Amino acid sequence: MDFKKKMLAEKAKLIIDGKTYELPILESSYGEKVIDISSLRSRTGCVTLDYGFMNTGSCASAITYLDGEKGILNYRGYAIETLADECSFVEVSYLLINGCLPTENELRNFKMMMNKYALMHEDMIHFFDRFPPGSPPMSILSSTVNALSVFYPEMIDNPLEQIDKMAARLLSKVRTVAAFSYKKSLGQPLTYPRPDYSYCANFLNMMFDLPVAPYEVDPVIVNALDKLLILHADHEQNCSTATVRLVGSAQVNLYASISAGISALWGALHGGANQAVMEMLERIYLEGGDYKKYIEKAKDPDDSFRLFGFGHRVYKSHDPRSRILKNLCDEVLHTLNRSDPLLDLAKEIEEVALHDDYFVKRNLYPNVDFYSGIIYKAIGIPNDMFTVMFALGRLPGWIAQWKEMWDDENWRIGRPRQLYIGPKQRRFVPIGARNVCDEKYS
Ligand code: ACO
Q1: What gap in Å lies between CA 405 and CA 196, rounded to an integer?
Q2: Closest by alpha carbon to 242, among 405, 73, 78, 67?
Q3: How far apart are CA 198 and CA 143, in angstroms?
Q4: Residues with beta carbon inside 6 Å of ligand 1?
Q5: Which positions are annotated as active-site residues?
Q6: E strand or H helix at 74, and its extent?
Q7: Separation CA 347–CA 354 (nearest Å)
Q8: Whole-number Å distance between alpha carbons of 201 and 141
Q9: Which atom of ligand 1 is nearest to the CA of 239?
Q10: What pTM value is reported for the model?
Q11: pLDDT for 170-181, tens place per residue?
């Protein structure tokens, strides 16, 4: 599918030093206006300043649409709610990467390719032995994905011709790496992937199967994992995706670009928040459940504590993923006939925060990370693997965005500008004559 950018007849007017400049306005598929400032510096000598890229688009994309005010999230034009109900994670991955839902035949071929590439090079398996005990799984994941480019260098010459192969390889291998890193952290023997299992069943089996206690695949858990991964599969130009694009824009290969995205996702303000939420809930619970104390801490301007799992750069109303996850949480615990006091605690915190002036005024709602950890816990995944699970889910989105960038005729190396506020020309002082750094050298 070929999507063209739509330019409006209307222009934005910018006045600098009394001179008026007209800037083109583009319109998104949903009618949002986007001022094109790409000619700003050459015409006016000015650049823009936008900390955290709050208002700055870096690309045109046909992959994911989200409306933060209305709480809408669509992949390739399909509502997230529909995809989570009707599709498997592998179908959604195909959709994101290729632009269309697969036919039965296309899906079969995609799965066959994933099975073909699921195994890891035996030399790569030695990597796991060399990481010290207690290494964070995100660090292992990022390093190992980067190393894939050394073991599978065929894509370097013509990446777009190899993209299907690379996508299948990444999707199946990252799943294997994630499970192996968990097994290694426990000192347990590795369980290899099985071609007769679905994507999620395979992952769960590699995580939990033991020679002395074979893992029994539970369809409720497989279904929950499928949904979780779908909900995380893409989220337009967030921190890790923007990182994948920025690194890839320098013509870095897909594996290394995704390894950089994994590192970005690791941060507690981004994907690492799912682990931080769980740790926060556990701490509150162990301290007797006084969550109001933590809500007060989060509101205190002199306290750096934040209510993890709340707030979002783009969503200024409910994050649709968090709504689905809250229901999924109830469903999974009910079907497995389990209860979790942390779920009750999370619901109480949500209820209080949603009616608290501080959170209301700042449009702070639960985000995707608020309930996901409770489901991961119910299906047996430990806290320090939560962000790895997020990375596994986000993988097709990163691949799709990287592919779209390589395919874009406007693609250029990413290179932001800045507002320089340092000293002007300084007098050079030879090393022997230097004193401590102070103003006299300026
Ligand atoms: N708890 C308490 N206060 C918060 C929270 C929170 N979770 N989130 C934002 N605020 C407050 C800020 O202190 C700020 O208040 P102020 O205006 O009085 O200074 C205001 O809300 C705006 O916050 P910013 O940090 O400017 O918003 P930004 O868009 O830059 O940050 C972010 C968004 C990073 C997600 C933020 O809401 C946050 O830190 N949340 C907690 C971490 C988290 O859950 N991250 C996961 C996000 S989803 C994802 O990445 C997958």
Answers
A1: 35
A2: 405
A3: 26
A4: 52, 269-271, 273, 298, 306-313, 362, 364, 367-369
A5: 312, 369
A6: strand 72-75
A7: 11
A8: 20
A9: 50
A10: 0.92
A11: 999 999 999 998
